[in-house]
Amino acid sequence: MDRYIAIELLMPFLFGVGAFSSLGVAIGSLFDLVRQVAESGLLIAIAVKVLLLKMPEFIVYAFPMSTLLSCLMTYSRFSSDSEIIALRSCGISIYRLILPAIVLSFMVTGMTFLFNELVVPAANYEASTTLSQALKKDQLNLKEENIFYPEYREEKINGQTTKTLARLFYADKFDGKQMKNLTILDWSRKGLNQIVTAEAATWNTQENTWDFFNGSIYIVAPDASYRNILKFEHQKLRLSRAPLDLASKGRDYGEMNIAQSLEYLKILNMSGDDKKITKLKVRIQQKISLPFVCLVFGIVGAALGIRPQRTGRATSFGVSVIVIFSYYLLSFISGALGQVSVLSPFLAAWLPNIFGLTAGGVMVLRVAR
To answer: What is the distance, to the nearest Å, from the Cα of residue 161 to the centroid of all Cα atoms in its chain?
Structure first.
């Protein structure tokens, strides 16, 4: 029986992966690439390469949808052909009947997690780099403008640990090699104690220091008056490397796996940018929760399909679209609430799964009665 159900589940699943990934890549990338070919002169060979590199992302999105479609179509056919009644008359419970669907869902969950971690970020980054280089936008991507990095230190005041500003780092731009037009305000000692300005600065990898060129150091007295001004052509300062990491970070959220996202989170934590930190925390939790959508859709699809009914494949496809749309709408809303700190990052990412699993469990219990 398990082998029979597994074979019946497999074909709709493969059909769903092909259909949903093709639909996704057409809407998400193909139309834009065609426009780039027509308007920007993008070579067709480059467009095809970028399209192929974007495929893994849409295949990952297609896995949960295909799991839902597969379970819904398979169990709907069993129900329409009275096979469910025949199997139950042999003493087989509903829970036993949907077990192959749950096993399939777990397998697709693992496959989605691995694909989303090992293949999708690298492919997305390669696609982005290839497209930028072909459109001669590589220099724009390398440059960062208005680099603003506040460095904090922790102090204990009246027994409570508070975060106070230690330095404020600002550069007009970063051209991939040098920071330009820098200003650094230093509160590392009591009060503002020095101001550093320079035309350029580079990170010295051998000595782990910053090399500043053509600038001035304004020494500030405790009463806020200028004590001294030092002009220099070359000055080494031991400051944090974080501004360089912040400026040279070229990957967006879809181009980083969980390990790279956690590494980037450490940099953002040092910058004190709460908005970006919260958004990244939500994204990290969503990367973990996304694969488990397959399990949710597997249970919901089996529960919907196994009910006594006579439905065709078109109806199953329509029901799948409604469930998928509802789920991703809830996911979008909870993610947005997480980014504005109404929900915690964990709850923002996992709330749709918790809701879906609860709904699926209730439906299975009602069918089993």
So the answer is: 32
253-263 tens-digit pLDDT:
777 888 888 87
Distance CA 102, CA 187 (A): 58
Which residues in 260-271 are b (16+ Cβ under 10 Å) and which e? ebeebeebbebb
- Any idea which residue has 């219990």 for tokens? 365
Question: What are the tokens at 107?
Answer: 């397998």
Query: For tokens 């590199």, what's the residue?
Result: 53
Q: Is the Cβ–Cβ distance between 368 and 95 less than 8 Å? A: yes
Q: Give the H or E element holding residue 207.
A: none
Sign of the CA dihedral running 256, 257, 260, 262:
positive
Lookup: tokens for 113: 């997690």
Note the pLDDT tens digit of each residue in 226-265. Answer: 678 888 888 888 877 777 776 665 567 777 888 888 877 8
* Cα(261)–Cα(282) distance, integer angstroms: 11
Only one residue has tokens 């724009």, namely 140
237, two tokens = 């300062």
The answer for 22, left when phi > 0, alpha when psi is -120 to 50, beta otherwise, is alpha
In one letter, which amino acid is 281?
Answer: K
* Model pLDDT, residue 138: 47
Task: Tell me the one-letter amino acid at 365.
Answer: L
Query: How far apart (Å, rounded) are the C-alpha atoms in residues 359 and 98?
Result: 16
AA letter at 266? K
User: Is 364 within 8 Å of 94 (Cβ atoms)?
Assistant: yes
Separation CA 269–CA 258 (nearest Å): 16
* pTM, 2 dp: 0.69
